[in-house]
C-alpha cells in the first residue's frame, strides 16, 4: 500500500548515520494548561529523534483532538494547525516525532495512533520495536482483527482492546507481557496518561514535573524520551522510568507498577550519538560520556598529529575529549552548512557525494596539517571516505580516523535504522579494508570495553557491535508468511 | 476527534439542498487497463454525489495502492498523485466521492477504507447508512475490536473479518445480513470486485461492461452508483444490481447471489434531484421523470402567469415540463454564476444570504412578469425566500412557487443529509406559513401520489415525506450510550 | 522570460470559445467602507471575464496595499490574503480579473499593475488592447525607459509618468490620445479613482453608486466592466462611461472629461457571449438581445425539427428565442457537469475530445429526435463536431446547427483571444465544408444584418466577422523589430 | 505596499546578529553547461548571506528564463522549478540570495531584477546599498521614470537604460560613477556577464574559473560574493574583483576596466561574522582571522576561568583562539538545536526569549565552572542576556563575556542590517551598563586596533564601530522628501 507524499523527505540524507526511530512525549496537568503548546515545545526538543512525521493528541476529558502529518514539527504545526488541537481545559496530551522504520514513509503511519476501544478513545505514541509484532498480528488477524496500518502500535492497541474485562492500566500491563523487544511508549485516554518501558530499558523514558510555585499552573507531570523535552516545558527531571516499569498519571497523581523486572541494558547508541548533548539518561550525562569516549580513544589509539578535528556536529564531544587527553590542539576543520538539508537529489552515489560536499567544507585549519578526524560511528563508510577526501584536497598531509563507537556489524531490532547488514561496512570488511576504503592513514574504533567504561552505568545493549541481543530477536522464519499474503 | 483540514470546504454551501452522501465506482479488468485513469473518469462523473473527499484503490493482484484526500476529484488527483496509484497491470480498482454525513468532515474518514484482514487486504467504498451500525459497533467494541474511524464502512469490514472461516463473498453476504439500512457498496480484494445493494434498493447501483471489440482491451466490468459513470469509461449499462443482491467479478467473470430479497423501494430523491439528468436508474430515466413531475405539477397546481422560470439548474427539468403542460413560456430568469462555490464566509444567515446573491442573479426576463418559479425541493426555506426576493427586486409582479417534491418533514436515515428535523421548514410550518415565510404569492408542492406517478416504477422510499421508513430506523435509545463514552 | 506557475491553469479549456481578456472594477468611497471586501465581491461578479489571475489595490490615502496572483478570485483571495489588503479607512480601490492575451500566462503580468511615479504611487487595471502599444513601447525604450513586464498597462503608465508637468487627470487624458485600440481602464492614486474608455467604446465600462440612505455608508462610486459588478456591491447603475470619455472620482465627487469623441462601435460579442445575461450594456440588455438573436435565427433559417437544444450555458438565450419563434419545443438535451474544469490533460486533440465528454453528456431528451442545436459561436469547430457526435450517439436522428453569431473570420485586436486566424474554421472553410466537418445535417449562422437588428443600438464592432476594424490595427511591419531584439 | 507572503519567514530570528543583505553569483560558459544547476549550487553555498529570497536568470543567447521567490534556495528551487529555468545551451546565468533591507520583505523585490531596455533584456543581482539611491531615484521620477519596486537595483538599471547611446559595459560604468555606497553586483544580458564592485570594495566579489582539462566543459568563468560559491561549482579562485573595478565576460573571454579607483576599505564584519569560515576574502582567510581575533581578545582581556565556551556557531573560531592563547580548556557548553528556525512566534520579547531557549541549551560542561563565553558581536544585547542566564541556571559560577568585535554604535549604510541606532545597545549604554544588562561577571570587546591586526590587510571599513563612513552617507535631509510623497 503506497500513499503519495508530495514534497516530503526521503530516507536518504547522505549522512550515513544510524537513525533513531522516534521521540515520545506526554503530559498530564491537574490544572488548565496550554498542553497543545507544551507538547509542541516538547516534541520540538525531541526533533533530533525523528524528522519524518510529527503529531499530537490533546484531551480535556471530553473532547479528543489529534493532528499529525509528515514533516518537521514546525512544518506540521503552523499556527492554525496548532490552534486546531488546542483545548481550553486540556488535561492530557501526548506527542510524537517519527523516523520511519516499520511501515516505511506512510502518511497514515504517522503517530500518535488513535482508536476507539471498549476503554474509550486511546492515543498511543511509541519509540522502538516489538520483535514479535508480526507473530502477534498474524494471530490476531486469524481471530478477526483488522489492521489499518503497518504500525507496531496498532498491535499494542489491539492487545489492550482485547482484554475487555480489564481496566486500561491492567490491560496495558497485560499487553507489555505479550510483546517483546525494545520500546518506550506513552498512551493516553481522555483522563489518564500512561508511560511504559521495555524490561531491558533499551529505549529511554524519563519522568518530570513542572513547578506549581506561583499557583498559576503546576504539578503537571511530563513523560518523555529525553530530559531536554522536560526542560523545554519548564519541568524538572524526577527520574528515569525503570526498565519494565509502567507509570500512570491521573487525578490522583503519579502511580507505578513494575510489570516485568529485567536486567537493564539501555542502548549504547543513545550516549554515542542519539541523545542530545544536554540530556542525561539513566543517570549518565551524554556530553560528559562523549568526552570520556574521546579520552578513552586517545588512550587506546594515540597518534602523532597536529590538530584534532570533529566531524560536525556528531564528533564534537569525542574530539574535545581526544584533544584534551592527547594534548593535540582542537580545531574547527570542517565547516558545516546549516542549510544543508533535503534536496531533490536522486539516490545515486554521485548525488550522495554531492550532498556531503554541499554540507561540509574544509577550512584553512587543515592545510599542511596531520589531522586526527573524530566521528561517532561508521555505517556504510561512504560519507567517511568523502570527508577524508575533502580534507586531503584541502591540504591535510595525514588523516587519522578515530571513531567513538565500536564497528557496527549487526542490525538493530529495537528501533534503530542502521542499514541492511550487507551494507554495514564493518560486517563485510576487515579494519584494514575499511581504512583503505575510506582512504585514511590510520583508522581505529573504540573498544567495546572502552565504550562501556566511558559510559559507565549498569549494563548496555551493544547488540549492533557484538550480536548479543538482550531483548530477543524476531522469529525470522515466521516473519513474512502471512504478512506477505495480506 | 478533530482533524484539521486546511483550505477545505465546509458543510455549508448556502444551497439548502438535501445532500447525497457518496458515489461509488469499481472496475475489474481481465486484461491490462489503466484502471487509475478509468477510476478517475468514473468518480469524476459521480462528483455531483459528493464533493468533500475523493479516493481510489488499485491493485494488480499483488500491489495494492490507495490514495484519498479531502477535496474534489480534480483537486485530490493531480497528475503526480494519479501516477502514484497507477499500476501497469492493474486488475481491480474502486473509487469513491464523499459528502460527509457520519463522522463529519474528517480527513481520515475519506474512502475507500482499506484494511488488512485474514482475507488479505481489502478496500471498501460505500454510499448510504447502516441504521444499526452503532449497535453492531458497540457489540464489537465489547468483544475487543478497534475502530480507527467513525465511518460505517469500518463496521462492515470488521464483520467481514470476524468470519475467519468463510471466504470473502460468503463473509460479505453474512455481513449484509447483519446490517440494516440503505446502502450500495463496492468492495475489492487484490483479485476480486464485489458490489452489493441493500434489500430495499434504497441507494442505486448499476453494472456495466466495456466493449472488447477491437481486442486492445475488453470485457472490463464496471459497478457504479449511476450509469453516467459507466459511459465515462466507455462501458454500456448491463443492468441495475437488484435490491438485496451481491455481485462479484473475478477471473471467471461476473457472478450473482441474492442475499436478502426485499421489496424494492428506491429513494425518490434520486429522480427528484440527486441523479444526473443523463442517468437512468431502475429502468426510469431521470430527465424524463423530471419533465413528468413538472407536467404533473402544472396539472395539480395551475396558475395564471407570464413565464416559467427554473431555479438553475435543479429546477430545469420540471420547469420545462410545467411550461409544456401549462403553455406558459419557459424563460431563463435567473443567471447562475458558475464560479460560485466555496468561499470562506462564516456560517451566519447574513453570509448565506450573500452566497445566494453571489450565485444567482435575475435577468431582464422577469421584469414586469408574473413568474412561476420551479424548484425541486424546499429544505429550510431560507434560500427560497431569498430567490423570491431577488425576483421581486428585479421587477417580478407575482411569484408563484411550485416544488417538484412533496414537503420534506422527516429526516433520512439512509444516507441523505437533509437537515435536523427542527430545521425542516415543512416539519414545523403549515403550507401557508411557509408561503408567507418565503414571500411567494402562492406555493404548492407536488402530491406524493403525483410524484409516484411521475417516477413510475415498482415502489419508492418516500420516508422523508411521510415518515414511513421501509429499511428500518435506528434504535434511538441505544444510539449514544457507549458511543458517547468512547 | 518564463515564470514557473505551479498548479496553474493552462489556456486550453476545451471550450473553443473566444475569450475576453479582462474585467475591471474600481471604487471610491467618501466614507469608511470595507473596500477590500467590496472589491472581492465586484471582481467575483466579473469572474466570467477572466479566470487566469485576479488582483486588487486598496488605499486609505496613505497606505497602498496590493495583492494579486494567478488563479480564480476565490483561489487568490482566501481569508488571510483578503485581510492583508484590508484597510480600516479605505478610500479607493481597484480590482481586476484576467484572461491572459498579451504576455501569456505570467505571474508578474497579473494586474493591477502598480508603480511609483512623480504623481505618487499608481495602480492600473485594464481590459482590452492598445494596437500601437509596441510602437510606443519601442519609442520609449530608445528614450531610456524600462519595461519589467510585457503588459500593455506598463506602456500606459509610462506615458502618464512622462508628463511630469501635468496632473494625473491631464496626463491620463494625454496618454489616451497617444494610444489607439479598444480598452476600458480603471486607474487609482492614493486619493482618486479614474475610469476611461476608448473612443469607439469597444470595451464596456459602467458607473454606479451605492445608496447612502441609512447613513452607515453611502455615496460610494463604482466603475466596472459590467453592471453585475455594481449590483454585487449594492450599487445601482448610473450610466455607461461614454466612448472616449474619462471620468474621475475624488473628494469633490464625480467628474467627466470627453477626451476623444468617437463613433460608438461597441464589441458585438459582449451581447453574443461575453457579458453576463443579467447585464445591460450601452442601454441594451444582454439576455433580451440573445433571445432576439434566437428569434432572428429562426426567421432567417427555419428548420423542421422536434426539439431545440442549447449548448449549455452559452446557447441558452438564443435557444429560448429560437424555440419561441419557431414553435419547436425547447428541451434540456445536454447535461453540463458543473465540476468540469481544469484537469491536467495534455493539449492533444484526444484530450480535448475527452474534455468535452467530461463536460457535456446528452440526456434522454434527444433520443429519436430531430434536434435544432443552438450555440453562440464556432471558433475552431472541434468542440462543435464532438457535440454533434454526442447527440447522434444518443439517438438524435437529425442535428441542425444554428449559430447566433456570424462566422468568425478575422482576429480581434481589441482584447479578445479568438485563435490564430489559420485556426478560425470560418476563415479557411466554406459553410458547406464546416457543416461537413462538424457533421451536422444543416448549419447556419445568423446574418450580420440580423445580428445588428437583434442587438440594436448605435453601432457595433463586427471586425471579427467582416475585417472592418473601427479602432485601427497594429502596424504589423513595425511590430517585432525592436521587440524581438530585447 | 504590502504583498502577502504565506508561510514565509519574518525578519526576526531571535539571533540578534547583524544581517548581511545578499549573496550574488554569476557564470559565463563558452561551452554548453547546466548553468541552472550550477547556479543552484552556487547560491546554495551563499545561503548564509541571505535567507529571505532566492532567484536566478539563465540565458542561452536567445531565451531568457528567470525564477525567484521568497524562501530558502531549496524551498524556492524544487526539481520542477529548477527545470523550468534550465536551458540546453545555457551560456550566461546569475543568481541571488537575499536578506531584505531596502524595501522589506516583498515578494516582488526578490532578485535578480529583470527588465527590457534598449540594450535588450537585462538581469541584475546586487549586494549592498547605494547611499544616494533615493536622490537619484527622485531625480529620475521627475524625469518620468517608473519604479515598480523599492529595490535599489531598479535605480541602477534605469541609469543604465538612460544611456541609450552607450553600449552595456560603458553604460554600466557610467552608472557606477553616479552611484555611491558599498556594493558588489553581477549583471547579465543574453550574451555577457558583468561584475562590479564599489570603489572602496566594501562588499566582497571574487572571480573564479572552472577547469577545462577533460574537454567536456571548460573555462566557464564564475563571479561570486565568496570563494565557497566557486568551489561549489568546481571552480578555482582566480582573484578578487578590485575595488572600483568592472569585469565582464563574453565570447572573447574575461575583460577588466578600472572605473573608479578608490582606497580599499572592505567591511570588517565579513571576517568577524558574515563570510563562511571556509572563505578567504581580499587575501585574508576568515577562519584563521577569527582564531587570531580570539587570541587577541585573550591577550587584551585575560581572565581566570575554567572553560572557554563559544556561542555556537558564530563564536567558534574566536573561542578556539581564546582557548589556545589563554590555555583555558575549550568546551562545548551550549547545545544548538539544528532544527531551530522559523516558528510562528509573535515578535514579542517573551517570544524572543523562548526562541533562544528553543535554540540553545547548556550542556553539563558548564556546571560549577567559571566560563569564558565567546561571541562575535552584541547588537541589542537581548540574546546575550538570555545566554548568560541559561549558563547560570545550568550552574556556571562565573560568566565572562568576550566579544570578537568592537561595540557596534553606528548604523551601516552599505548593506548590513544591524538595527536602528537607538536599538544598538552600545550606542546608548556604557560598557558597564551593558555588562550589567546582560548579567555577565565581566564583559570585554576586542579593540579596534586589535581587530585590525587580527584581520590584517590594507584597510577596513569599521564605520559601525567608529562612525567613519569611507563610502559616503545618505543625504539625510533629502531622503524622505519625495520618497514619502509617492
From TrEMBL, chains A, B, C, D:
Q: Name one Pfam family in it.
A: GATase_6
Pathway connected to this protein: Purine metabolism; IMP biosynthesis via de novo pathway; N(1)-(5-phospho-D-ribosyl)glycinamide from 5-phospho-alpha-D-ribose 1-diphosphate: step 1/2
Residue sites binding Mg(2+) per the record: 314, 375-376
Keyword Transferase assigned: yes
Q: Which family does the record claim for this protein?
A: In the C-terminal section; belongs to the purine/pyrimidine phosphoribosyltransferase family.
Note the HAMAP family from the entry.
Answer: PurF
Q: What is the name of this protein?
A: Amidophosphoribosyltransferase
Gene name as annotated:
purF
Amino acid at each position: 500500500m503506497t500513499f503519495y507524499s508530495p514534497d516530503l523527505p526521503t530516507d536518504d540524507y547522505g549522512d550515513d548515520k544510524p537513525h533513531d526511530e522516534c521521540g515520545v512525549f506526554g503530559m498530564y496537568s491537574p490544572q488548565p494548561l496550554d498542553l497543545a503548546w507544551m507538547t509542541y515545545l516538547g516534541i520540538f526538543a525531541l526533533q533530533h529523534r525523528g524528522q519524518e512525521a510529527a503529531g499530537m493528541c490533546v484531551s480535556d476529558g471530553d473532547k479528543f483532538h489529534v493532528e499529525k502529518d509528515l514533516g518537521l514539527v514546525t512544518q506540521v504545526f503552523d499556527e492554525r494547525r496548532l490552534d486546531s488541537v488546542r483545548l481550553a481545559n486540556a488535561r492530557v496530551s501526548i506527542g510524537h516525532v517519527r523516523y520511519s522504520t516499520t511501515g516505511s514513509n506512510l502518511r497514515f503511519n504517522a503517530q500518535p495512533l488513535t482508536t476507539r476501544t471498549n476503554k474509550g478513545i486511546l492515543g498511543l505514541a511509541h519509540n522502538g520495536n516489538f520483535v514479535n509484532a508480526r507473530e502477534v498480528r498474524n494471530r490476531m488477524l486469524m481471530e478477526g482483527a483488522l489492521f489499518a496500518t503497518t504500525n507496531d502500535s496498532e498491535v499494542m492497541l489491539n492487545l489492550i482492546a482485547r482484554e475487555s474485562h480489564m481496566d486500561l492500566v491492567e490491560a496495558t500491563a497485560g499487553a507489555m507481557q505479550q510483546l517483546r523487544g525494545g520500546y518506550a511508549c506513552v498512551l493516553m485516554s481522555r483522563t489518564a496518561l500512561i508511560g511504559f518501558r521495555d524490561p531491558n530499558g533499551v529505549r529511554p523514558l524519563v519522568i518530570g514535573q513542572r513547578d506549581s510555585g506561583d499557583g498559576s499552573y503546576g504539578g503537571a507531570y511530563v513523560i518523555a524520551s529525553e530530559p531536554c523535552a522536560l526542560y523545554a516545558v519548564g519541568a524538572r527531571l524526577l527520574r528515569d522510568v525503570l526498565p519494565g516499569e509502567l507509570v500512570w498519571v491521573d487525578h490522583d497523581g503519579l502511580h507505578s507498577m513494575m510489570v516485568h523486572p529485567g536486567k537493564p541494558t539501555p542502548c549504547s547508541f543513545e550516549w554515542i550519538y542519539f541523545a542530545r548533548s544536554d540530556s542525561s539518561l539513566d543517570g549518565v550525562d551524554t556530553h560528559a560520556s562523549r568526552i570520556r569516549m574521546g579520552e578513552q580513544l586517545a588512550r587506546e589509539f594515540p597518534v602523532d598529529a597536529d590538530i584534532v578535528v570533529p566531524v560536525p556536529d556528531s564528533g564534537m564531544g569525542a574530539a574535545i575529549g581526544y584533544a584534551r587527553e592527547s594534548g593535540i590542539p582542537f580545531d574547527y576543520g570542517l565547516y558545516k552548512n546549516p542549510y544543508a538539508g533535503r534536496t531533490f537529489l536522486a539516490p545515486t552515489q554521485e548525488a550522495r557525494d554531492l550532498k556531503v560536499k554541499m554540507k561540509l567544507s574544509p577550512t584553512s585549519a587543515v592545510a599542511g596539517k596531520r589531522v586526527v578526524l573524530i566521528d561517532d560511528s561508521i555505517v556504510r563508510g561512504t560519507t567517511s571516505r568523502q570527508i577524508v577526501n575533502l580534507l586531503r584536497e584541502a591540504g591535510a598531509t595525514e588523516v587519522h580516523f578515530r571513531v567513538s563507537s565500536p564497528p557496527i556489524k549487526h542490525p538493530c531490532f529495537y528501533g534503530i535504522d542502521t542499514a541492511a547488514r550487507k551494507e554495514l561496512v564493518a560486517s563485510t570488511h576487515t579494519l584494514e579494508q575499511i581504512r583503505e576504503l575510506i582512504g585514511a592513514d590510520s583508522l581505529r574504533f573504540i573498544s567495546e570495553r572502552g565504550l562501556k567504561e566511558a559510559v559507565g552505568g549498569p549494563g548496555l545493549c551493544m547488540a549492533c557491535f557484538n550480536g548479543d541481543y538482550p531483548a530477543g530477536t524476531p522469529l525470522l522464519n515466521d516473519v513474512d508468511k502471512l504478512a506477505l499474503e495480506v
